[in-house]
Design a protein that fits this description.
By secondary structure, the protein is α/β, with parallel strands linked by helices. About 35% of the residues lie in helices and about 15% in strands.
Length: about 290
């Protein structure tokens, strides 16, 4: 059993990485410590089958972990981070330098065209940091990445290099695989810990693979895991619009032992959909459901 790097339910002892490695919709960077503080003090192997930005995994920094996702270019980034972090730095720097010597939007579109012609981790790495708000959206019928260029300047290579170094140290004891969540979760054994952060039913249908995602299938898989003695934590829709809309989901009674609300602030996805308005009324709260 690995021992958590924090006191149970004491989020003051949990420290997230100093900055995001990837910008990603649903990124848990700002409140990963809140989530991790709810995890059991002792557990076996750690699984994160909807990896995305990996903020929770990097905050936990497990001594034995598996991060997985069905999105191959994303996993290519993570595998390169642990196997060859210098290549990850070079991927970013080469594209960042191109941006400095020409029109920002035209270079961004060239990189996006390169990605859409041949989906790959090197282009995706830069696009997710340079696109509008980190809203990496995909067309349902062909997987085309369509997000326009962001108004911000992507961070310089020196700053990105520092993040690569920190994140490499945090996740170096993990492995990363292209894998369906059901396959990954079925690998978990009694005493292992799974954190699920699937596409959200009410807001994230534009994510890669989200259109085919079936929440009921995930619930059934969680139930099977609980029966095997696996600890499962699930982040899922909570409330929208300052708490006025409760996202009612088909969660069976008795499956989860605890429910915690995590304040996520304003929705960047909603801001993107409404052309950059400040959206003071669009507050979002996630539910963290725990089988333990």
């Amino acid at each position: 059993m690995q021992l958590g790097l924090f006191k149970a339910y004491d989020k003051t002892a949990v420290e997230a990485p100093g900055g995001q490695l990837l910008k990603w919709i649903g990124n848990k960077q700002r409140f990963a410590a809140d989530i991790v503080s709810c995890f059991p003090r002792k557990f076996g192997r750690y699984f994160e089958p909807f990896l995305g930005s990996g903020a929770v995994l990097a905050t936990l920094a497990p001594s034995d972990g598996l991060g997985s996702d069905i999105f191959r270019p994303l996993i290519e980034i993570w595998q390169t981070l642990i196997r060859d972090p210098e290549s990850l730095k070079m991927w970013y720097e080469e594209r960042w330098n191109r941006l400095q010597h020409s029109d920002k939007k035209s270079i961004y579109e060239q990189i996006k065209d390169s990605y859409n012609t041949h989906p790959n981790g090197a282009d995706l790495l830069f696009l997710c940091r340079a696109c509008y708000g980190g809203v990496v959206r995909f067309r349902q019928f062909d997987g085309y990445m369509s997000t326009p260029c962001g108004v911000h300047r992507p961070i310089p290579p020196k700053a990105f290099d520092a993040r690569v170094h920190e994140w490499h140290l945090r996740v170096r004891d993990c492995s990363f695989e292209v894998m369906d969540y059901r396959e990954a979760m079925n690998m978990a054994k009694e005493g292992d810990l799974i954190y699920c952060d699937p596409p959200y039913h009410h807001s994230q249908s534009i994510l890669y693979g989200a259109q085919a995602f079936d929440l009921q299938e995930l619930i059934n898989t969680i139930s099977d895991c609980k029966c095997r003695g696996v600890f499962v934590a699930l982040s899922i829709d909570g409330t929208k619009k300052s708490g006025s809309l409760f996202c009612d989901l088909p969660i069976p009674a008795g499956l989860f032992e605890r429910e915690v609300y995590v304040n996520c602030g304003r929705s960047m996805l909603r801001r993107f959909q409404m052309n950059g308005k400040t959206l003071e009324s669009e507050q979002v709260s996630d539910r963290l459901l725990l089988t333990f």
